[in-house]
Design a protein that fits this description.
about 65% helix; two-stranded antiparallel sheet; mainly alpha; globular
Length: about 300
């Protein structure tokens, strides 16, 4: 990789990280919606969201705040990332939720809940990117997960408690699986993502564009998630073909055009570090022969 401008703060990850390259990919938006579907299946976690915000009225704002946090922690300066993490931890400390069945009151910053949200999010990013054709190898995937102990620390987790490779992440999901259920809150999230409220004039665009993206994100969920939501899972090969086709179309849009959209984290990072800091899939692929034997280790 070409040298970046000296003297600039590379932030938490830096241009040599897998995270830096991967998070510039447009399929991150599909992955983010998949993460919401998955996160909603933890009753205690989703209850914390629904009881502390008007999800239906502020869902877009929540999505954009999450995207802003990911962009800042990936491409911002170290100081900006630490400030973003401090804001999240402060908000979480003030919020709680109540179990309607037992009356138990609990904080939304319980480590188990933070860990679920983190793993569902990072696991979804990794799954969608790899399955849609982004050139991740097995070693890249493990490195990506290890890198995200940084983002876990920012939200208040002990980095040592966070899965640092694919085997640990798979073991975590297997362990937490009995706690998952599609309760009323999960179905409310599902209903919103299928049919988000919009201006009547924009309903055709919602049907044409949004529902296709949301359906693709939903279809890419693991089999147990389909079972919990109560809809049959489509054939995996069909979903993979659709993910790859969507990735091909979105990646054909010039990156500079995509990155012009606010809040322009990537362009600001390139201004700070120089044009060599530009994230690109080929920079991942160029490292693959070093990290893994040819033909092995494709991320699933």
């Amino acid at each position: 990789m070409a040298a970046t401008r000296t003297g600039g703060d590379p932030g938490l990850f830096g241009p040599d990280s897998v995270t830096w390259q991967a998070h510039g990919d447009p399929m991150m938006w599909v992955a983010g919606i998949r993460a919401l579907y998955l996160q909603a299946l933890h009753p205690r976690a989703v209850r914390g969201v629904m009881q502390n915000s008007d999800f239906r009225r502020d869902a877009w704002g929540r999505l954009m705040r999450t995207a802003g946090f990911v962009g800042t922690t990936t491409y911002g300066t170290t100081e900006a990332a630490e400030r973003a993490g401090a804001r999240v931890r402060k908000i979480h400390r003030m919020l709680g939720a109540t179990d309607p069945d037992t009356g138990e009151r609990y904080g939304v910053d319980e480590p188990a809940l933070l860990l679920w949200v983190h793993c569902a999010e990072i696991g979804s990013y990794l799954h969608v990117l790899g399955r849609s054709g982004f050139p991740l190898t097995a070693a890249h995937a493990d490195r990506y997960l290890a890198e995200h102990r940084h983002s876990a620390r920012l939200v208040g987790l002990d980095p040592g408690s966070v899965p640092a490779n694919r085997a640990e992440l798979a073991a975590y999901f297997a362990r937490v699986r009995p706690e998952l259920a599609a309760g009323p809150e999960a179905h409310e999230v599902d209903d919103f993502l299928c049919r988000p409220p919009t201006h009547p004039l924009l309903v055709p665009a919602r049907e044409l564009l949004w529902r296709r993206v949301a359906r693709l994100a939903y279809d890419s969920l693991p089999p147990y998630a389909h079972e919990l939501y109560g809809r049959p899972a489509p054939p995996p090969a069909t979903v993979t073909r659709r993910l790859r086709a969507t990735g091909t179309v979105l990646r054909a849009i010039p990156a500079r055009l995509r990155w012009q959209l606010p809040p322009r984290h990537i362009l600001r990072a390139m201004d700070r570090l120089g044009p060599a800091a530009r994230p690109a899939p080929y920079k991942i692929g160029r490292q693959a022969a070093i990290l893994d034997p040819p033909g092995e280790g494709a991320a699933d």
